[in-house]
Amino acid sequence: MQRxxxxxxxxxxxxxSDVLVHSGxxxxxxxxxxxxxxxxxxxxxxxxxxxxxxMEAIHCGASPLLPNRLAYPELYKASENPDIFYEDDDEFxxxxxxxxxxxxxxxxxxxxxxxxxxxxxxxxxDNFFQGHNSYTPR
Length: 138
What we know:
By secondary structure, the protein is mainly alpha-helical. About 45% of the residues lie in helices and about 5% in strands.
């Protein structure tokens, strides 16, 4: 991604300035708005531990385009969802063009975040803490 990054971002911002909602840092309030109005989530990360912002955006309905590396293949089932993964810069650009052309007919990938939703996790935490209620502070 390095070889395209500056060129691509500058050109992308210029070409799509009339439809691009946001690029760069956002306040918390703006972040929530963006998450709930995003159509496409192109991810180019080379370093990420869990990718909570990616999880949040997908949960809010954005269509992801993810690198087939880091935690993403495991979290979002690359073998079952190959259309949302790319291997290299060329495939990223190719898939991004396709996603941009068809975003209004996008697939919904929110189901990939269900196991991390609070409605699911609360039972996991309740079960864990019920079995570990013998903690005594020193």
